[in-house]
Amino acid sequence: MTLNQIELFGKRSIKSLVAPFLRGWTETRKSWRRGADTGQVQILAYHRIVADITQAEQNAIYGLVVSAETFARHLELLQKAYEILTIDDALAVLRGEHRLRRPAALITLDDGYRDVYDHAWPVLQRMGVPAVVYVPTALVGTTQLLDHDRLYWLALKAQERGLDLRGPLEEAGLSPERAAHWGEARDARQMANHLNYQSVAIRQPIIQSLETALGICHEDYPADYALMDWDMIREMAAGGITFGAHSDRHLILTLESEAAAEREIRWSKRVLEEQLNCPIRHFAYPNGHYNNAVRQMVERAGFASATTTERLIAKCGDDPLLLGRISLCEESTRGITGRYSPAVARLRLAA
Ligand SMILES: [Zn+2]
């Protein structure tokens, strides 16, 4: 067992053990709320919805993937307990203008992966569930991949080959201490997260240097890292899916200059508005990172809402430009056996 597997097993054991006890509590909590207007919206965040979860978890950061089957099970569970709203209705609930008899939920999908079109869109259509998809506009309709995926793949390949990345990281501009620390890291996910958490001026040379050191070119990355094209987005938008901006190049806005961050925010809104021929009013901060200056830029650009990745349930009176979300992946609702657990799912999702 790797360290990662031991960590996952420990987490699953705790979830499975507490789920049956907390279920009773959840039922009680539900009965308190029955018929009551909670003024809360549970905003759920997904990334990739995949056909083959085993393969996807081998190739991708596990926190980003969920199978189409599990996604549908989540939505079934949510439909029983919640009103699943459009984002505009969810914002009206948070403003206290829209009162509901049941708790409210909102489905969001980040990054605009192609498999959201292939596997999430049919489920959403079949079940009649509204959703918001946030896309990084510069990458849509191109063969470019997201930096966090490229870095994860590079870290994974380096580990498989037992390669020391200190040299390539130093060449890319990292200090010898940081290059030594991350070049030898044993957890590909942690390494990728750290190397991704850089300004674009540092992140791009890191990727180029690692690709050269590992002899990896564009064709070597998994095909399922691909993003949607504009025709797919237009089709989903015509079918009722709301699209929101997720910056232009998926830059971590708090690490960029104010001018660069402002450009990312405004340009992504403009490109989406031109492509979809409708106002774009919703934004998601890349990697969930924001600060007061970035929040103000989003407000000045004319967005009505923005979501973070802070694990919070949105409630009436919250700042609509700082809405927390609950992130979900396949692992979130696995029990001790490693398979989907209805008890754990009810614990994670039930109102
Ligand atoms: Zn993202």
Give a quick precis of the structure.
The protein has 351 residues and is an alpha/beta fold.
Please describe the structure with a list of short key phrases separated by commas or semicolons:
351 residues; TIM Barrel; 14 helices; two-stranded parallel ribbon; 2 domains; single chain; 49% helix
Give the helix tally.
14
- The gyration radius over C-alpha positions equals 20 Å
* Contiguous uncertain segments of 5+ residues: 23-29, 31-36
What number is the mean pLDDT?
Answer: 91
What ligands does this structure carry?
Answer: zinc ion
Structural overview:
49% of the residues lie in helices and 11% in strands. It has two domains: 267 residues, TIM Barrel, CATH 3.20.20; 74 residues. The protein is of the alpha/beta class and 351 residues long. The chain is built from 14 helices and eleven strands. Strands 1, 4, 5, 6, 7, 10 and 11 form a seven-stranded mixed sheet that branches. It has a two-stranded parallel ribbon with strand order 2-3. It has a two-stranded parallel sheet with strand order 8-9. It is globular, with a radius of gyration of 20 Å. β8, α13 and β9 form a beta-alpha-beta unit.
Topology (elements, then pairings):
Blueprint lengths: L2 H31 L6 E7 L1 E3 L2 H7 L5 E3 H14 L1 E2 L2 H8 L9 E7 L3 H14 L4 E4 L11 H14 L5 H6 L4 H8 L4 H9 L3 H15 L15 H9 L3 E4 L12 H19 L5 E3 L7 H9 L4 E3 L6 E2 L10 E2 L14 H8 L2
Parallel strand pairs: 1-5, 1-11, 2-3, 4-5, 5-6, 6-7, 8-9
Antiparallel strand pairs: 1-10
Zinc ion (ZN) binds next to loops.
